Amino acid sequence: MPDTPDSGERLRARLAGHERRFNAVFEEYFDTLESTLDAPSFSGFVPECLRLVRELSLRGGKRIRVVLVHEAARLVTGEPVEGLDDAALSIELLQTHGLIHDDLIDDSPGRRGGPSTYYAYRERFPDRPRTALGLTVLAGDLALALSLRVLLDSKAPLPVRQAMTEVQTRAAADTFVGQIVDLERDVGPAVPTEDVLHSVSDYKSARYSLLAPLQLGLLAAGEQPARHEQELRRYARLVGICGQLRDDYLDLFGDATVTGKPTGTDIRDGKRSYTVAALLSAVSGPERALVESALGDPSCTADTIAAVREIGVRHGVPDRLRSAMRHHAERAAAEAAAWRPRWRGEAVAFFERLPWWSVERSH
Question: Does 27 share its domain with 160?
């Protein structure tokens, strides 16, 4: 679904405005929190923990969840909406929680151009690994609690506050389930089915990164998302699958100089991603043995990853993955197009375009 030059430019300017404004709001939030968070005066660990949560949060990327919150409200009205900033703060704090715990689970040294919270604590406590681990878990827990508290403290009407808090609580629970089944997917010899891969994508990311922002924005604007529950869920799931397919594709078939990440990380980590599952389903004999020997080997060389990549290309895996992305993007865009009789066309156009951005992005 291509943009005209004029409409595309206006849309990009609007989205960049959401990002700029939110970054200022987020910084102000942490400035206020540093002076209002109730903690014992003797503690040095609490301010340090808050500093690490702040640093990771403010190193954020495209703020797509923030954009989704604002554009969901624009489906209903073009006027300013009370509570949108609080909804955006909540969703980004939940994202911070997820990143902190993901980096601990994956033993990742870096995140967003800086050290992960786990590795910052490991450097701080080189001789106390349990302290570093415990403080990392608690930093993630603090971000989660703050994501709910910001909604409880919102100036939005009480029924809206309560409904938004329920959305975020459910989104957090779904995400935890997704993290559990994500780990379960990678245990054992079986190649995960397409249904399993879709479910992991849905629970681990789509429900909090897409569905929850949609629901929060609609609630803040006075709409009742429960009236449109099934179609919102279908849309979020489809776009989430597009995004995860693209992430998994870029991990092996992307350009490392563009993505900023080494190629083959999922293979070294033993992740049975969409790409890995497609590879294992396509190969046999010595080629499969090579893929399986690389899977889960952290010392796997760049040459081996290049060989696995070549096997995938030879068997048409990149084409299959791109075809699946386009299929899900088409379905998601059609789902959004059906909103036009009910909601504002300008905002609907954004949601029609969003799945194609997932398919086209290079990093």
Answer: yes
